[in-house]
Amino acid sequence: MDFLNALPGAVSQGLIWGIMAIGVYITFRILDIADLTVDGSLCTGAAVFAVLFTGGVNLWLAMLAATLAGMAAGLVTGLLHTACGIPAILAGILTQLGLYSVNMAIMSMKATVAINVTTNEMLDKLLVSLRFVTDVAKGTRPFWRHPIFVGGLFTLAIIAVLYWFFGTELGCSLRATGANGNMARAQGINTNFAKVLGLVVSNGLVALSGALLAQYNSASEINMGRGAIVIGLAAVIIGEVIFGKLFTNFALKLFSVVLGSIIYYIVLQAVLALGLNANYLKLLSALVVAVFLSVPYWKNRYFSKPVKKGGARNA
After folding, report:
1. Among residues 227, 210, 223, 204, which one has the least CA distance to residue 51?
2. Distance CA 43, CA 105 (A)
3. Could you tell me the CA-to-CA distances from 139 to 123, 135, 157, 279 in Å, in that order?
4. Residue 137 CB: number of other CB atoms within 10 A?
5. Which of 28, 80, 300, 307 is the most exposed place for a label (fewest CB within 10 A)?
6. Angular region, 108: left φ>0, alpha ψ -120 to 50, beta rest
């Protein structure tokens, strides 16, 4: 019963983190770059939003500023990689490291910036909140204020925009860069620009997810992005393993990432309902990612049908 009661909250979190996972998919699968900036840029988006919103700035402007801040973080990683020749994974680590201090500065050297939701006036301004889950269940708020509904609309809108963008000439240049950088350069594509643009878009989505997460949790916390890359990778891999053969369209592939994030949080909630100590969640996350990363390898190595060698006989 506790698991069923917690299920709407798990799906809501899965949708919000799914936006972050789409950002991870852009770098990890499309650009073929392991970008570790996300652990820092998620908190950057949350910090910028929380500080601006609590300071009286319009919610939509605060979310836009949070997204732009994440894009700036991605730009730094991209320039470190392309202009300075630093390997992509190390460039992400450097940016992530620097963002810790930047995020602390944004939050005025406080580890947490809370969003006051004790008054209905402030609470009603938020797009998503954990309290909305119970309020909708009780009937005190309309169904369209439920985080699942709002998160679903955000997800569909983002997937639609990305589907259009990656169908344009510029978007196709990003896909070509990740597929084969040498061939892309031979076709006259500026691969360095494509990498930077991909990192900018990716971290913008991650920061947007951070802004929504700050609303959902009613706070921005300095360590809220720790392990975000693991959650993002888990969502990508789970989505590919379960829905890879069903979803071949690009938009559906993005949607499978979100479904992977939802499944990940449902599994976590189920394990917690069984009595697992919450301090073991990071270990569980690592194990989940390791298992799903191993599934394609095990499938090809141990379960694929051997190729018949009849060439010499048929020659």
Report:
1. 210
2. 12
3. 16, 6, 27, 34
4. 12
5. 307
6. left
Q: How many CA atoms lie within 13 A of 137 on its CB side?
A: 13
The tokens for 292 are: 């799903």
Identify the CA nearest to 205 among candidates 242, 257, 129: 257
Contacts 24+ apart (CB under 8 A), 278-283: 282/227, 282/230
Q: Residues 173, 92, 222, CA angle at the centre, nearest 5°?
A: 125
Asked if residue 36 lies in contact with residue 92, where contact means CB atoms within 8 angstroms, the answer is yes
Number of H helices, E strands in the chain: 14, 2
How far is the C-alpha of 199 from the C-alpha of 121, rounded, in Å?
37
- The burial of 40, by beta-carbon neighbours within 10 Å (0-12 exposed, 13-18 middle, 19 or more buried), is given as buried
Per-residue model confidence as pLDDT tens for the chain (315 residues): 577 777 888 899 999 999 999 999 999 999 998 899 999 999 999 999 999 999 989 999 999 999 999 999 999 999 999 999 999 999 999 999 999 999 999 999 999 999 988 777 788 889 999 889 888 888 888 889 899 999 999 999 999 999 999 999 999 999 999 999 899 999 999 999 999 999 999 999 999 999 999 999 999 999 998 888 988 988 998 998 889 888 889 999 999 999 999 999 998 888 888 888 878 888 888 888 788 778 778 877 887 766 565 555 554
